[in-house]
Write a structure and sequence with these properties.
single chain, 4 helices, transmembrane helix, mainly alpha
Length: 115
């Protein structure tokens, strides 16, 4: 069975909707349903936060150490320096995420333009 074997033009869109929306929304609904019954300081919720933070850190590390696209042509010292500078600005600015992200972006773009 291939996409071309189905005669209707809209079938791939239905498949994408079913696979993308239904598959993820069930977990969102379960999260809302179960999340309302879990205490904020429970061990389960602390574990979930730790896993979510670790996943975000892993994605950021992958983007810095093993980038793709245009970022792959930039030197590693620039990527690491921009991330470190953004983190320093984040701490100095009172742990404001947006300020830290913008500072890292400005450092990276400035470094790329200077090269």
């Amino acid at each position: 069975m291939t996409w071309q074997s189905l005669p209707d033009w809209w079938w791939p869109f239905v498949f994408i909707l079913a696979a993308g929306w239904f598959a993820t929304d069930i977990w969102r609904f379960l999260g809302v349903f179960i999340g309302g019954r879990i205490r904020e300081d429970s061990e389960v919720l602390v574990f979930v936060r730790c896993v979510a933070t670790a996943l975000v850190a892993a994605v950021i590390a992958q983007l810095i150490l093993f980038p793709t696209g245009e970022l792959a042509s930039s030197p590693i010292w620039l990527r690491v320096g921009a991330a470190a500078g953004g983190f320093a600005v984040y701490l100095v600015a009172g742990k404001r995420v947006l300020v830290g992200v913008l500072a890292a972006e400005v450092l990276l773009v400035t470094g790329l333009l200077a090269l």
